[in-house]
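Budget justification aside, the reviewers requested a transparent look at the raw inputs and outputs of the sequence design task funded under Objective 1. We therefore reproduce one unedited record. The lines immediately below are the structure tokens for a 295-residue chain.
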């Protein structure tokens, strides 16, 4: 198997995109019939020793019940259930390669099926992300079955109010008066790996409500670390702000990398709107796979 992966690496052509600074490498099965292994994914995504990215989007794959299938690989080698920014990038890639037009189409992910639409000649992508659930069984969160709302969690000697949610992947949201990058770096890795509470690990968002229609977030992404923007994180944070009664249904989420529009329906179904930008095309050298990364 290792020899097969190495042979395939010689043919790996990647297309790099970013969604408000959250960057992904698109790997088309036409160029690499085998999805990269976790070990190879770490090397490819490495910021210093590889091509550098917040993950790999492997697709389009054939999928029952949807127009396209997509696998989302994190830079630590794990596989994500869903990514809002990744879906916008994937939609833009399909549009750029002539596989879709400006009509709606569906994509299957591990976190469920979504509907996407490329608008304004590719300048804007809308994704129906699915419905947010706050229930512990769905997210999952350990403990008695319940909606995880305003629960105290101690991190580094301080108690924080937390809300947990899923939109196909797990999130924990911490409302606070002022969010900072430094605090995301401090709290994010602890909460992400608090498996006694979050058995599948979790994405982390620090949430500051600005007014009825605007929130600001800082993001620590499971498997990727500090991130400039995230569509699923924006969806979860907006849903929490609405659940708290602090925001209306139409919310602009201000991320460090830019703004994402979120519409929260009465049943907490989410529609996300934002951009995706093509960066360039890369032919990866086999040396990336052959090297041993420092520990």
């Amino acid at each position: 198997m290792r020899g097969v992966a190495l042979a395939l690496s010689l043919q790996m052509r990647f297309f790099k995109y970013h969604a408000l600074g959250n960057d992904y490498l698109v790997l088309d099965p036409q160029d690499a019939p085998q999805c990269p292994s976790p070990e190879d994914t770490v090397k490819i995504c490495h910021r210093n020793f590889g091509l550098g990215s917040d993950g790999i989007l492997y697709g389009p794959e054939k999928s029952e019940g949807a127009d396209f299938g997509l696998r989302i690989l994190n830079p630590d080698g794990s596989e994500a259930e869903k990514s809002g920014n990744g879906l916008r990038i994937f939609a833009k890639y399909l549009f750029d390669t002539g596989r879709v037009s400006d009509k709606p189409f569906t994509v299957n992910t591990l976190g469920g099926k979504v509907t996407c639409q490329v608008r304004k000649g590719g300048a804007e992508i809308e994704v129906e992300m699915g419905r947010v659930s706050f229930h512990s069984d769905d997210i999952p969160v350990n403990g008695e079955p319940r909606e995880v709302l305003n629960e105290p969690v101690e991190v580094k000697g301080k108690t924080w109010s937390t809300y947990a949610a899923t939109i196909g992947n797990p999130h924990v949201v911490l409302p606070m008066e002022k969010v900072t990058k430094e605090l995301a770096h401090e709290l994010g890795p602890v909460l992400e790996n608090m498996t006694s509470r979050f058995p599948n690990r979790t994405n982390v968002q620090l949430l500051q409500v600005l007014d009825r229609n605007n929130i600001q977030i800082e993001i620590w992404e499971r498997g990727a670390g500090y991130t400039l923007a995230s569509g699923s994180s924006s969806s979860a944070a907006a849903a929490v702000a609405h659940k708290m009664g602090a925001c209306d249904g139409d919310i602009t989420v201000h991320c460090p990398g830019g703004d994402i529009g979120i519409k929260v329906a009465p049943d907490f179904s989410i529609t996300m709107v934002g951009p995706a930008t093509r960066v360039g095309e890369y032919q990866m050298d086999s040396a990336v796979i052959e090297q041993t990364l420092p520990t």
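The CA atoms of residues 3 and 9 lie 10 Å apart. Confidence is low (pLDDT under 50) at residues 1-9. Computational costs for records of this kind are itemized in the attached budget.
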